[in-house]
Amino acid sequence: MEFMTGVKKKDDVSVKVLLELEEGSFVKVQGAVHSIRDMGEVAFIVLRKSEGLVQCVYEEGKAAFPLKDLKEESAVEVMGIVKKEERAPGGVEVCISEIRVLSEPTEPMPLAVNKWKMNTSLEAMLNMRPIALRNVRERAKFKIQEAVVRAFRDFLHSQGFTEIHTPKIGAKGAEGGANIFKLDYFHRPAVLAQSPQFYKQMMVGVFDRVFEVGPVFRAEKHNTKRHLNEYTSLDFEMGYIDDYTDIMSMETGFLQYLMELLKKEYQKELNILNVQLPKTDQIPSVPFAKAKELVAEKYDRKIRNPFDLEPEEEVLIGRYFKEEYDADFVFITEYPSKKRPFYALDDPKDPRYTLSFDLLFHGLEITTGGQRIHDYRMLSEKIAARGMTEEGMEQYLSAFKHGMPPHGGLGIGLERLTMKLIGEDNVRETTLFPRDLTRLEP
Fold first, then answer.
1. 317 within 8 A of 284, measured Cβ to Cβ
2. Distance between CA 442 and CA 433 in Å, rounded?
C-alpha cells in the first residue's frame, strides 16, 4: 500500500531556479522544443516552459542523442551543465549532455509559433487556437489576464469580501430583454445566466460583501470587435454603502492594486507586449448628460441619442478626458433610468436618472455598476411600472421582503479590460476560445 504525503519534489528545475544556479551546476530541464538552430558542429535548442524560454547548446560528440532525430514541439527532458551567457534568455544557457524525448509531434506545425509574430490572420489563429497559444506573445496576453483575475480576488479578499459561485442555468434572466439563451431543462424552460445579479444581491443579505468570477451569456446577434456571446465577468456586490460612489471608489482601489501587481510580478509580460500601464491615481467622474455635452461642444458632434452612449461617443469621451486631464479611465454617472435594469436605484432628486455608472477605459465601456433598490415596496412598484411580472423572481424578491441593507455593485468584462490593457482592438485577441455569432469551436 502507498500513501500520498504531499507534493512530490521533482528534480526538473524551473526557469526561476535555473537563473539562480551557479555556473557549472548540473540540471535537468523539461519543456517543449520551441526552436532548433543548427550551426553545424553546434546547435541552439530553445525550450519553452510555462515561465519562459531556456537556451540549450548541443555540440556534436558531447550529447548522447543525434540532433537529426529531434523535432520542434517535441516534449523533452534535457540534462546538462549551467553556463552564463549574456546573449541567452535570462543570461543563462544549458550545455547539453543528454536529451530524452518524452513525446513528439506526428504532423508539421501549421503555424510558426516560434516566431515573435506569427504573421497570420486572427481567423487562422482562432481556428488553430490550441497551437497559436503556444506563441510567446500570445501566452503573455493570458498571463496579463491571469494578473487581472488574481488582483481582483486578492484585493477584494483584503477588503472583507467573500467569494461565491452562483448557478449559470436559471428560470429567468436577471436583466430581461431578448438577449437570453433559452434551453430545455428536463422539459421545462430555462435560460443561461446574463449575469449573477440576482444571486449576488441575495448574498449581500448573507455576507454583506460578495464577489464572483464566472461566465455570462448574451444572445445578441452582433459581430463587432467589442462583443462576445460568452465572456467572463468580474462581479462584486457590497452592502451598507453610503451611496454609489463607494462602489466607484472600490473599483478604483482594485485598479490601483492591479497596476502594482503587474509592475511587481508581470514585468516580463509587460515588456514582451510593450505595455504602458494606465494611470489610476485618480479617476475623473462626470454625469452622463454633461459628458455628452462636453464632447458635442469640443468635437462639433450633434447629440443624436439622449438616452444612451453611442460607441463613437464613448471614444470621444475617452479622448476628451485624455486631452484635458491626461486620464486613461473616466466614470460616466447618472445614466437615464429607461436604459438601466429595474433594480437600479433612481436618483431621488430626478427619477429620470439612476445612481449608476459605467467606467470607460480609453473610450470603451469595461464596467457597468451602481446602487440598487433595497426597499421591497420600491422594487415591486418599479417592476409593475415597467409592465413586468414577478413570476420567476419570487426567491429574489423574498430576500427584500425580509430586509436588505443599502447596497450596490458592478460587473467588469475581463476580456475587454485585458484587451485595453495590452492595446489590442479586438476582444477575441484576449479570449482563450471565443464564442461569438459564428464560432462554437474549438
1. no
2. 7
